[in-house]
């Protein structure tokens, strides 16, 4: 389960971070680091044993107790996990991850309402936590509260735009509605933030399917153009103006895809889109993703970037042949990507938050 892997990664990172903090009881800190190593290797029994020793030395250390509760959760002992974590929730040094662990313990015990209330409580304390929005959204979707689940993922994107999980889940939810525009936008952000996982491959497929879906329904773009003209005539800012401007600009590129959607045609579509966007909408709607694409275009790496996104899922053999023929260009892109990753920016949230699933 991804939620489990995400928490494990965070807990291990905290273990390394905690090791750098000067402490008075060095022996206890060393035990904490040893326990983190056991968790990383999957030896939860030894992790629990060692953490209990560390807590004996520092009984008021919230981090040690949180890691102990997390180890119990990983081991599957939910009763001990719950009794360890619950007393920590109201402490001043409680953090968002503590609420995340507690919520997952309640879910494992099938105490769904308690888990949901806990996530809400955690979000009141930590309203910028992408992880809590993500987990709360997943729980609400499981409970078939679809609009509530999506609202959490979108709020997570708004409040913590560098956390990838909310983009992933939002894309999956958007695949059930008519308009694929946000899959195209959020999906590309996601594959830049989380580039080499199973979820990356899944979202790449969703991305190319979303482009096909967009161009198979011209009414999406013609309606967006009409809405955009009305919005500009009224001189009132609409919550949907960004999405309308995006679809209207994409609609101008229809002739490019008349022979089908593949990486080569998408290079042309996306290049022409960028030229149009920065002529008409770029000033009003600054957006890190489009700036990143334009920079790659200026560097002569946009073809390689587009191949990197779409090639593996469009046609693996053709992608391999392309990278062999353009090895220097592709290697240059990979190097650029390592040194110049996409950095999403706050205050660039333009989603109108409209979402509904038929029941």
CATH topology of the domain at 2-160: Serine Threonine Protein Phosphatase 5, Tetratricopeptide repeat
Helix percent reads: over 70%
Report the sheet with the most strands, covering strand number, pairing sense and barrel closure.
none
Which series of helices and strands comes N to C? HHHHHHHHHHHHHHHHHHH
Mean pLDDT across every amino acid position: 92
CATH architecture of the domain at 2-160: Alpha Horseshoe
CATH superfamily of the domain at 2-160: Tetratricopeptide repeat domain
**Highest CATH level, the class of the domain at 2-160:** Mainly Alpha
Number of distinct helices = 19
- Percent of residues in beta strands? under 5%
Shape: globular
Q: What is the CA-based Rg, rounded?
A: 23 Å
Oligomeric state, counting identical vs distinct chains: single chain
Give the CA-CA distance, first to last residue: 26 Å
Q: Report low-confidence residues grouped into runs of 5 or more.
A: 19-26
- The secondary-structure class comes to mainly alpha
| Number of separate strands | 0
């Amino acid at each position: 389960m991804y939620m489990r892997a995400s928490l494990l990664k965070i807990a291990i990172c905290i273990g390394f971070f905690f090791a750098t903090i000067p402490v008075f009881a060095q022996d206890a800190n060393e035990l904490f680091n040893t326990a983190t190593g056991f968790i990383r290797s999957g030896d939860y029994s030894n992790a629990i044993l060692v953490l209990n020793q560390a807590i004996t030395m520092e009984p008021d250390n919230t981090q040690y107790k949180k890691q102990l509760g997390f180890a119990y959760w990983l081991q599957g002992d939910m009763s001990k996990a719950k009794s360890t974590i619950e007393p920590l929730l109201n402490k001043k040094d409680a953090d968002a991850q503590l609420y995340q662990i507690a919520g997952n313990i309640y879910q494992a015990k099938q105490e769904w309402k308690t888990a949901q209330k806990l996530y809400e409580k955690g979000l009141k304390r930590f309203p910028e936590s992408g992880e809590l929005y993500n987990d709360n959204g997943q729980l609400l979707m499981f409970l078939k509260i679809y609009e509530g689940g999506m609202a959490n993922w979108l709020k997570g994107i708004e409040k913590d735009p560098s956390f990838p999980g909310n983009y992933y889940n939002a894309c999956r939810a958007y695949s059930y509605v008519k308009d694929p525009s946000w899959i195209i936008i959020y999906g590309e952000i996601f594959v830049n933030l989380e580039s080499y996982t199973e979820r990356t491959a899944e979202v790449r497929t969703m991305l190319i399917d979303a482009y096909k879906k967009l161009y198979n329904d011209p009414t999406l773009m013609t309606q967006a153009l009409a809405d955009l003209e009305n919005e500009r005539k009224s001189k009132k800012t609409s919550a949907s103006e960004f999405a309308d401007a995006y679809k209207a600009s994409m609609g101008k590129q229809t002739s490019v895809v008349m022979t089908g959607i593949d990486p080569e045609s998408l290079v042309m579509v996306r290049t022409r889109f960028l030229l149009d966007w920065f002529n008409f909408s770029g000033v009003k709607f600054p957006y890190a993703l489009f700036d990143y694409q334009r920079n790659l275009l200026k560097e002569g790496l946009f073809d390689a970037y587009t191949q990197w996104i779409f090639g593996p899922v469009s046609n693996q053999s053709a992608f391999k042949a392309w990278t062999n023929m353009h090895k220097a260009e592709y290697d240059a892109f990979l190097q650029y990507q390592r040194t110049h990753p996409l950095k999403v920016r706050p205050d660039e949230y333009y989603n109108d938050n409209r979402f509904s699933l038929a029941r």
